[in-house]
Amino acid sequence: MHQACPSLRSLSGDGWQPSPILGIESSCDxxxxxxxxxxGGVLSSVISSQVAIHGKFGGVVPELAARAHVTAIDIxxxxxxxxxxxxxDDLGAVAITRGPGLAGALLxxxxxxxxxxxxxxxxxxGVNHLEGHIASAWLSDPIFPLPCxxxxxxxxxxxxxxxxxxxxxxxxxxxxxxxxxxxxxxxxQMLGLEFPGGPAIDQLAKRGNPEAIPFxxxxxGKTDLEFSFSGLKTSLLYKLRxxxxxxxTEQVADLAAGYQEAIVQVLVSKAFAALAQERLSALxxxxxxxxxxxxxxxxKERAEREGVCLAVPPMAYCTDNAAMIASVGRHMLxxxxxxxxxFDIQPALQVGSGPTPV
Length: 358
Ligand code: KG4
Ligand code: ZN
What we know:
By secondary structure, this protein is an alpha/beta fold.
Protein backbone atom coordinates (compact mmCIF):
# COMPACT_ATOMS: atom_id res chain seq x y z
CA MET A 1 0.00 0.00 0.00
CA HIS A 2 1.45 3.38 -1.01
CA GLN A 3 1.62 6.04 1.65
CA ALA A 4 1.46 9.78 0.89
CA CYS A 5 4.24 11.86 2.48
CA PRO A 6 2.50 14.68 4.35
CA SER A 7 5.31 16.75 5.87
CA LEU A 8 7.87 17.52 3.21
CA ARG A 9 9.43 20.95 3.35
CA SER A 10 9.12 21.82 -0.35
CA LEU A 11 5.40 20.90 -0.43
CA SER A 12 2.81 23.46 0.63
CA GLY A 13 -0.96 23.74 0.22
CA ASP A 14 -0.25 25.01 -3.34
CA GLY A 15 1.74 21.90 -4.22
CA TRP A 16 5.47 21.68 -4.88
CA GLN A 17 7.45 24.90 -4.72
CA PRO A 18 9.80 24.84 -7.75
CA SER A 19 13.35 24.33 -6.48
CA PRO A 20 16.49 22.51 -7.68
CA ILE A 21 15.90 18.81 -8.20
CA LEU A 22 18.41 15.95 -8.10
CA GLY A 23 17.97 13.06 -10.54
CA ILE A 24 19.66 9.69 -10.04
CA GLU A 25 19.90 6.84 -12.57
CA SER A 26 21.21 3.34 -11.79
CA SER A 27 19.07 0.97 -13.89
CA CYS A 28 21.88 -0.74 -15.82
CA ASP A 29 25.60 -0.05 -16.21
CA UNK A 30 25.79 3.70 -15.72
CA UNK A 31 25.67 5.46 -12.37
CA UNK A 32 24.42 8.97 -13.11
CA UNK A 33 23.30 12.05 -11.20
CA UNK A 34 22.11 15.44 -12.42
CA UNK A 35 20.80 18.67 -10.94
CA UNK A 36 18.14 20.80 -12.64
CA UNK A 37 17.55 24.42 -11.66
CA UNK A 38 14.24 25.99 -10.61
CA UNK A 39 13.25 26.40 -14.28
CA GLY A 40 14.24 22.87 -15.34
CA GLY A 41 17.59 23.87 -16.91
CA VAL A 42 20.41 21.34 -16.53
CA LEU A 43 22.98 22.64 -14.00
CA SER A 44 25.05 19.45 -14.02
CA SER A 45 24.94 15.92 -15.42
CA VAL A 46 27.55 13.41 -14.26
CA ILE A 47 27.83 9.85 -15.61
CA SER A 48 30.11 7.10 -14.31
CA SER A 49 30.29 4.30 -16.87
CA GLN A 50 30.98 0.65 -15.97
CA VAL A 51 32.24 -0.25 -19.46
CA ALA A 52 35.68 -1.18 -18.09
CA ILE A 53 34.10 -3.63 -15.63
CA HIS A 54 31.78 -5.42 -18.07
CA GLY A 55 33.93 -5.13 -21.21
CA LYS A 56 35.88 -8.34 -20.61
CA PHE A 57 32.63 -10.32 -20.27
CA GLY A 58 31.17 -8.93 -23.52
CA GLY A 59 27.97 -7.80 -21.74
CA VAL A 60 26.59 -6.42 -18.50
CA VAL A 61 27.00 -8.74 -15.48
CA PRO A 62 24.09 -7.82 -13.14
CA GLU A 63 25.83 -8.62 -9.84
CA LEU A 64 28.93 -6.63 -10.80
CA ALA A 65 26.73 -3.74 -11.96
CA ALA A 66 24.97 -3.55 -8.58
CA ARG A 67 28.28 -3.60 -6.69
CA ALA A 68 29.76 -0.89 -8.90
CA HIS A 69 26.69 1.31 -8.29
CA VAL A 70 27.22 0.92 -4.52
CA THR A 71 30.81 2.12 -4.89
CA ALA A 72 30.04 5.01 -7.24
CA ILE A 73 26.68 6.46 -6.26
CA ASP A 74 27.66 8.77 -3.42
CA ILE A 75 30.70 10.06 -5.33
CA UNK A 76 28.66 10.72 -8.49
CA UNK A 77 25.94 12.55 -6.54
CA UNK A 78 28.65 14.61 -4.78
CA UNK A 79 30.17 15.60 -8.15
CA UNK A 80 26.76 16.52 -9.59
CA UNK A 81 25.98 18.76 -6.60
CA UNK A 82 29.45 20.37 -6.67
CA UNK A 83 29.29 21.08 -10.41
CA UNK A 84 25.84 22.60 -9.97
CA UNK A 85 27.19 24.66 -7.03
CA UNK A 86 24.28 23.32 -5.07
CA UNK A 87 24.16 22.12 -1.46
CA UNK A 88 22.02 19.19 -0.38
CA ASP A 89 19.88 21.62 1.62
CA ASP A 90 19.08 23.60 -1.56
CA LEU A 91 17.37 20.58 -3.11
CA GLY A 92 13.58 20.48 -3.33
CA ALA A 93 13.17 16.87 -4.50
CA VAL A 94 14.95 13.67 -5.55
CA ALA A 95 13.92 11.75 -8.67
CA ILE A 96 15.09 8.17 -9.06
CA THR A 97 14.69 5.49 -11.74
CA ARG A 98 12.40 2.77 -10.36
CA GLY A 99 12.35 0.59 -13.51
CA PRO A 100 12.69 -0.99 -15.97
CA GLY A 101 16.20 -2.34 -15.44
CA LEU A 102 18.33 -4.80 -13.49
CA ALA A 103 16.81 -5.50 -10.07
CA GLY A 104 20.05 -5.23 -8.06
CA ALA A 105 21.13 -2.09 -9.88
CA LEU A 106 17.73 -0.41 -9.40
CA LEU A 107 17.72 -1.33 -5.70
CA UNK A 108 20.98 0.52 -5.07
CA UNK A 109 19.64 3.77 -6.55
CA UNK A 110 16.18 3.54 -5.00
CA UNK A 111 17.57 2.76 -1.52
CA UNK A 112 20.07 5.63 -1.75
CA UNK A 113 17.40 8.08 -2.98
CA UNK A 114 14.95 7.01 -0.27
CA UNK A 115 17.55 7.70 2.42
CA UNK A 116 18.36 11.08 0.92
CA UNK A 117 14.70 12.10 0.67
CA UNK A 118 14.06 11.00 4.24
CA UNK A 119 17.16 12.75 5.60
CA UNK A 120 16.40 16.03 3.82
CA UNK A 121 12.58 15.86 4.18
CA UNK A 122 12.05 16.39 0.47
CA UNK A 123 9.77 14.50 -1.93
CA UNK A 124 11.00 11.33 -3.64
CA UNK A 125 9.74 10.61 -7.14
CA GLY A 126 10.02 7.15 -8.73
CA VAL A 127 10.56 7.60 -12.46
CA ASN A 128 10.06 5.21 -15.38
CA HIS A 129 13.40 4.97 -17.23
CA LEU A 130 11.63 4.80 -20.62
CA GLU A 131 9.68 7.95 -19.83
CA GLY A 132 13.07 9.48 -19.04
CA HIS A 133 14.34 8.60 -22.52
CA ILE A 134 11.15 9.99 -24.05
CA ALA A 135 11.51 13.23 -22.07
CA SER A 136 15.13 13.60 -23.26
CA ALA A 137 13.81 14.81 -26.63
CA TRP A 138 12.23 17.78 -24.87
CA LEU A 139 15.26 18.57 -22.67
CA SER A 140 16.95 20.59 -25.40
CA ASP A 141 13.78 21.44 -27.33
CA PRO A 142 11.07 22.17 -24.74
CA ILE A 143 8.60 23.38 -27.39
CA PHE A 144 8.84 20.32 -29.65
CA PRO A 145 5.24 19.79 -30.83
CA LEU A 146 2.68 17.28 -29.64
CA PRO A 147 1.09 15.08 -30.87
CA CYS A 148 4.07 13.27 -32.37
CA UNK A 149 5.58 9.84 -33.00
CA UNK A 150 8.27 8.69 -30.55
CA UNK A 151 10.72 5.92 -31.43
CA UNK A 152 12.55 4.55 -28.35
CA UNK A 153 15.66 2.62 -29.41
CA UNK A 154 17.84 1.40 -26.57
CA UNK A 155 19.61 -1.73 -25.34
CA UNK A 156 16.33 -3.33 -24.25
CA UNK A 157 13.63 -1.51 -26.23
CA UNK A 158 12.58 -0.79 -29.78
CA UNK A 159 9.17 0.76 -29.32
CA UNK A 160 7.09 3.11 -31.46
CA UNK A 161 4.57 5.30 -29.66
CA UNK A 162 2.03 7.90 -30.60
CA UNK A 163 2.36 10.62 -28.00
CA UNK A 164 -0.84 12.64 -27.75
CA UNK A 165 -1.35 16.32 -26.95
CA UNK A 166 -1.97 15.34 -23.30
CA UNK A 167 1.46 13.65 -23.08
CA UNK A 168 0.06 10.11 -23.02
CA UNK A 169 1.87 7.48 -25.05
CA UNK A 170 0.04 4.76 -26.98
CA UNK A 171 2.11 1.82 -28.24
CA UNK A 172 1.98 1.38 -32.04
CA UNK A 173 4.54 -1.39 -32.44
CA UNK A 174 7.66 -2.90 -30.95
CA UNK A 175 10.24 -5.60 -31.58
CA UNK A 176 9.24 -9.25 -31.60
CA UNK A 177 12.68 -10.38 -30.50
CA UNK A 178 15.91 -8.42 -30.04
CA UNK A 179 16.00 -4.68 -29.45
CA UNK A 180 17.99 -2.55 -31.91
CA UNK A 181 20.72 -1.91 -29.32
CA UNK A 182 20.90 -5.63 -28.58
CA UNK A 183 21.33 -6.31 -32.32
CA UNK A 184 24.23 -3.84 -32.38
CA UNK A 185 25.82 -5.38 -29.27
CA UNK A 186 25.46 -9.00 -30.44
CA UNK A 187 26.61 -8.17 -33.97
CA UNK A 188 29.69 -6.41 -32.59
CA GLN A 189 30.49 -9.41 -30.44
CA MET A 190 30.36 -11.69 -33.51
CA LEU A 191 32.65 -9.27 -35.36
CA GLY A 192 35.11 -9.38 -32.46
CA LEU A 193 34.58 -5.72 -31.53
CA GLU A 194 34.66 -4.23 -28.08
CA PHE A 195 31.69 -3.75 -25.74
CA PRO A 196 29.37 -1.85 -26.00
CA GLY A 197 28.87 -2.81 -29.60
CA GLY A 198 26.79 0.12 -30.85
CA PRO A 199 29.54 2.76 -30.75
CA ALA A 200 32.11 0.20 -32.00
CA ILE A 201 30.03 -0.70 -35.10
CA ASP A 202 29.22 2.98 -35.66
CA GLN A 203 32.95 3.86 -35.79
CA LEU A 204 34.01 0.89 -37.90
CA ALA A 205 31.13 1.29 -40.37
CA LYS A 206 32.44 4.74 -41.33
CA ARG A 207 35.29 2.98 -43.17
CA GLY A 208 33.04 0.40 -44.85
CA ASN A 209 30.69 0.24 -47.84
CA PRO A 210 27.10 -0.44 -46.68
CA GLU A 211 26.19 -1.91 -50.09
CA ALA A 212 29.16 -4.30 -50.40
CA ILE A 213 27.60 -7.10 -48.35
CA PRO A 214 23.79 -7.14 -48.34
CA PHE A 215 21.89 -8.05 -45.15
CA UNK A 216 18.16 -8.86 -44.82
CA UNK A 217 15.87 -6.01 -43.74
CA UNK A 218 12.75 -7.01 -41.85
CA UNK A 219 9.81 -5.47 -43.73
CA UNK A 220 6.66 -7.59 -43.45
CA GLY A 221 4.59 -4.90 -45.10
CA LYS A 222 4.85 -1.18 -45.58
CA THR A 223 2.22 -0.53 -42.92
CA ASP A 224 3.44 -3.05 -40.36
CA LEU A 225 4.99 -1.32 -37.34
CA GLU A 226 6.66 -4.33 -35.73
CA PHE A 227 10.41 -4.93 -35.73
CA SER A 228 12.54 -8.08 -35.77
CA PHE A 229 16.33 -8.28 -35.69
CA SER A 230 16.90 -11.98 -35.04
CA GLY A 231 17.08 -12.88 -38.77
CA LEU A 232 19.69 -10.20 -39.32
CA LYS A 233 21.80 -11.57 -36.49
CA THR A 234 21.58 -15.11 -37.92
CA SER A 235 22.53 -13.80 -41.34
CA LEU A 236 25.73 -12.27 -39.92
CA LEU A 237 26.50 -15.52 -38.13
CA TYR A 238 26.20 -17.54 -41.37
CA LYS A 239 28.18 -15.01 -43.40
CA LEU A 240 31.02 -15.18 -40.88
CA ARG A 241 30.86 -18.97 -40.76
CA UNK A 242 31.21 -19.17 -44.55
CA UNK A 243 34.09 -16.67 -44.78
CA UNK A 244 37.78 -17.43 -44.39
CA UNK A 245 39.33 -15.67 -41.39
CA UNK A 246 41.55 -13.59 -43.68
CA UNK A 247 38.53 -12.40 -45.72
CA UNK A 248 36.65 -11.58 -42.51
CA THR A 249 39.50 -9.35 -41.40
CA GLU A 250 39.70 -7.71 -44.83
CA GLN A 251 35.97 -7.07 -45.02
CA VAL A 252 35.17 -6.34 -41.38
CA ALA A 253 34.36 -2.66 -42.07
CA ASP A 254 32.01 -3.62 -44.96
CA LEU A 255 30.33 -6.22 -42.73
CA ALA A 256 29.83 -3.62 -40.00
CA ALA A 257 28.52 -1.04 -42.49
CA GLY A 258 26.09 -3.50 -44.12
CA TYR A 259 24.84 -4.81 -40.78
CA GLN A 260 24.35 -1.30 -39.39
CA GLU A 261 22.62 -0.17 -42.57
CA ALA A 262 20.06 -2.98 -42.27
CA ILE A 263 19.20 -1.89 -38.70
CA VAL A 264 19.00 1.86 -39.27
CA GLN A 265 17.12 1.66 -42.60
CA VAL A 266 14.38 -0.39 -40.92
CA LEU A 267 14.20 2.02 -37.96
CA VAL A 268 13.82 5.01 -40.29
CA SER A 269 11.30 3.33 -42.56
CA LYS A 270 9.05 2.16 -39.66
CA ALA A 271 9.23 5.55 -37.92
CA PHE A 272 8.07 7.29 -41.11
CA ALA A 273 5.41 4.61 -41.69
CA ALA A 274 4.08 5.43 -38.20
CA LEU A 275 3.98 9.15 -39.10
CA ALA A 276 1.99 8.33 -42.24
CA GLN A 277 -0.37 5.98 -40.41
CA GLU A 278 -1.10 8.53 -37.68
CA ARG A 279 -1.08 11.49 -40.11
CA LEU A 280 1.51 13.31 -38.02
CA SER A 281 4.53 15.41 -38.98
CA ALA A 282 6.65 15.41 -35.80
CA LEU A 283 9.07 12.62 -34.87
CA UNK A 284 11.24 12.18 -31.75
CA UNK A 285 13.90 9.45 -31.72
CA UNK A 286 15.44 8.67 -28.30
CA UNK A 287 17.52 6.06 -26.43
CA UNK A 288 21.11 4.87 -26.79
CA UNK A 289 20.84 3.87 -30.46
CA UNK A 290 19.74 7.43 -31.36
CA UNK A 291 23.45 8.28 -30.85
CA UNK A 292 24.21 6.32 -34.03
CA UNK A 293 25.74 8.68 -36.58
CA UNK A 294 24.31 6.94 -39.68
CA UNK A 295 20.81 6.84 -38.14
CA UNK A 296 21.01 10.57 -37.32
CA UNK A 297 22.03 11.42 -40.90
CA UNK A 298 19.27 9.30 -42.46
CA UNK A 299 16.62 10.71 -40.12
CA LYS A 300 17.69 14.29 -40.80
CA GLU A 301 17.75 13.81 -44.59
CA ARG A 302 14.34 12.19 -44.74
CA ALA A 303 12.76 14.64 -42.27
CA GLU A 304 14.00 17.57 -44.36
CA ARG A 305 12.76 15.96 -47.57
CA GLU A 306 9.30 15.25 -46.16
CA GLY A 307 8.87 18.40 -44.05
CA VAL A 308 8.85 16.46 -40.79
CA CYS A 309 9.80 18.19 -37.54
CA LEU A 310 12.54 16.02 -35.98
CA ALA A 311 13.87 15.83 -32.41
CA VAL A 312 16.93 13.70 -31.66
CA PRO A 313 18.57 14.50 -28.29
CA PRO A 314 22.12 15.84 -28.14
CA MET A 315 24.60 12.98 -27.70
CA ALA A 316 24.92 13.52 -23.94
CA TYR A 317 21.21 12.75 -23.48
CA CYS A 318 20.90 9.79 -25.92
CA THR A 319 22.42 7.14 -23.68
CA ASP A 320 21.53 6.69 -20.00
CA ASN A 321 21.77 9.88 -17.95
CA ALA A 322 20.09 11.39 -14.92
CA ALA A 323 19.06 14.75 -16.40
CA MET A 324 16.21 12.97 -18.20
CA ILE A 325 15.14 11.32 -14.92
CA ALA A 326 15.17 14.62 -13.03
CA SER A 327 13.20 16.22 -15.86
CA VAL A 328 10.40 13.63 -15.61
CA GLY A 329 10.36 13.90 -11.79
CA ARG A 330 10.15 17.71 -11.97
CA HIS A 331 7.24 17.56 -14.38
CA MET A 332 5.40 15.03 -12.21
CA LEU A 333 5.75 17.30 -9.19
CA UNK A 334 4.53 20.31 -11.16
CA UNK A 335 1.44 18.49 -12.39
CA UNK A 336 -0.22 17.60 -9.12
CA UNK A 337 1.58 14.33 -8.61
CA UNK A 338 1.36 13.33 -4.96
CA UNK A 339 4.75 11.95 -3.90
CA UNK A 340 4.77 8.68 -2.02
CA UNK A 341 7.48 7.71 0.46
CA UNK A 342 7.31 3.99 -0.12
CA PHE A 343 7.53 2.32 -3.51
CA ASP A 344 9.30 -0.72 -4.86
CA ILE A 345 11.58 -1.14 -7.81
CA GLN A 346 9.82 -2.38 -10.97
CA PRO A 347 12.38 -4.22 -13.15
CA ALA A 348 9.80 -4.92 -15.90
CA LEU A 349 8.02 -1.54 -15.92
CA GLN A 350 6.58 -0.46 -19.29
CA VAL A 351 5.32 2.90 -20.51
CA GLY A 352 1.85 3.08 -19.01
CA SER A 353 -1.28 4.88 -20.03
CA GLY A 354 -0.51 7.79 -17.68
CA PRO A 355 0.93 11.05 -18.99
CA THR A 356 4.55 10.93 -20.02
CA PRO A 357 5.87 14.28 -18.82
CA VAL A 358 7.37 16.78 -21.27
O1 KG4 B 1 19.62 3.87 -23.69
P1 KG4 B 1 20.85 3.10 -23.36
O2 KG4 B 1 22.07 3.87 -22.94
O3 KG4 B 1 20.58 2.02 -22.27
C1 KG4 B 1 19.39 1.31 -22.21
O4 KG4 B 1 18.39 1.85 -21.66
O5 KG4 B 1 19.40 0.18 -22.75
O6 KG4 B 1 21.18 2.25 -24.67
C2 KG4 B 1 22.28 1.41 -24.72
C3 KG4 B 1 22.34 0.81 -26.12
C4 KG4 B 1 23.43 -0.24 -26.26
O7 KG4 B 1 22.88 -1.37 -26.88
C5 KG4 B 1 24.46 0.45 -27.13
O8 KG4 B 1 25.21 -0.44 -27.95
C6 KG4 B 1 23.58 1.35 -27.98
O9 KG4 B 1 22.62 1.84 -27.08
N1 KG4 B 1 24.34 2.47 -28.57
C7 KG4 B 1 24.52 2.63 -29.89
C8 KG4 B 1 25.37 3.75 -30.04
N2 KG4 B 1 25.66 4.24 -28.79
C9 KG4 B 1 25.01 3.43 -27.90
N3 KG4 B 1 24.05 1.91 -30.93
C10 KG4 B 1 24.43 2.31 -32.15
N4 KG4 B 1 25.25 3.35 -32.38
C11 KG4 B 1 25.74 4.10 -31.38
N5 KG4 B 1 26.54 5.13 -31.62
ZN1 ZN C 1 18.28 3.63 -21.20
